């Protein structure tokens, strides 16, 4: 029996060997396929975590930008309000009335001194500047601590103050109130874009530093967790060179203290040229006011598309190289004996300058200004001065019809301009900042800045010397603008909206850099 079994195995040993080989090969193939599937699942999970980590960091970065703008905007607001003290002009007008009242014998004679028709006309032309422009009680001349609508309007008929006529004072009030509101709108939009550029450039360095550190774990660590390990580590915040980045962020001092004032002079000259001939008691439609506002913008930003595209905003946003040391000293970052021009800081400044001078920056800035001016004129002025109801989907046509015929005196809008200047420059609950942050192109612009020029970054935040380039370019950013313009919405300047696919491009660029 045993011998027979041995002979049977001997005769079929070839078949057994083939079968065993097939089974072994099948087992190995199965294990290989399972291993590959497991690797693919792990790779997909890692990519999903990496994308979510990038998105989370980016969204947090944009929230930081908003809080930063609200924190530093009041500095520029204070400087602009000090440079254009419209309330002081009102105080002078009210003092004229107080002097007239002091010379008067009694209220009955005061009432009879002005023609009733003139007094009635003035009483309808302007609301109280005290309530509409945040005039302090110390600025009010009457003994009750406040002024009625008729009392403020009666300053139009008072005798002129020595040195300045009544007409000159009201013309100064008109130019001052409009100029500072427009200047604050420009400052808010420029500060928003500058902050987005700065924090997204630094956020990109922070992200890359985190990825590099996570990709190089200690020897005993066998698994990589894509978590933010440096949120509370100030030495690692925004890359390894925290001091350099502090100096870089302090360059916003220039816009807050010098750039906004230089811009104010340009805006005031444009307002004087456009609004200078208007009489405060003249009635104009909201459409006419919008046209005049557009003329001011054209004189500031450029009348043609080519002028707008080539206009240089850089002098308002960053100091010239010979003034950088002065700005760093004024902001408390350096002293006269230190040397602030480190290679890392110089690279950040150069890249920021390139971004500001790019057509993409002008395109996005135009859209932000469209939104800001629209909120001021079409919402606030329309509601508070022209008494047009708020816009809604069902009442948009009704508002358009009513707004076409509605008229208001120029003087009635001046009080709204005065008050809105404080709202535009507010550091809390700023509805104008909320309005411009609704522009989709702003976030897309930030996404492209956040994900651009990865190849020029090294773990220590320096520039890559192997590429043969001394500084990054904005070619990728401009290409994204051209390729991303899929929306047909047109701004006042005739520029198509864009950046529809910028977030996808940002993620694709980030994946390609791995």
Helix content: 55-70%
Overall geometry: elongated
Poorly predicted residue ranges: 109-128, 130-161, 224-239, 458-476, 479-507
Major beta-sheet overview: 2 strands, antiparallel
Provide a count of the helices.
Answer: 22
Rg on CA atoms, Å: 33 Å
Provide the number of structural domains.
2
- Largest sheet: spatial strand order: 1-2
Classification by helices and strands: mainly alpha
* First-residue to last-residue Cα separation: 68 Å
How many strands?
2
Would you tell me the overall average pLDDT?
74
Strand content: under 5%
H-E string: HHHHHHHHHHEHHHHHHHEHHHHH
Textual characterization of the structure:
- This protein is mostly helical and 514 residues long.
- It folds into two domains: 50-83 and 175-218 and 230-512, no CATH class; 86-164, no CATH class.
- The chain contains 22 helices and two strands.
- The protein has helices spanning 2-11, 13-83, 86-103, 107-113, 116-123, 129-132, 149-153, 166-215, 242-249, 253-275, 286-301, 305-310, 314-317, 324-330, 343-356, 359-384, 396-405, 410-424, 431-436, 440-451, 475-484, 502-512, and strands at 283-285, 407-409.
- It has a two-stranded antiparallel sheet with strand order 1-2.
- α2 packs antiparallel against α8 (166-215), α8 crosses α16 and α10 (253-275) crosses α11.
- The model is unreliable at 109-128, 130-161, 224-239, 458-476 and 479-507 (pLDDT under 50).
- Residues 457-473 have a biased composition (Polar residues).
- One of its GO terms (biological process) is protein import into peroxisome membrane.
- Residues 37-64 form a coiled coil.
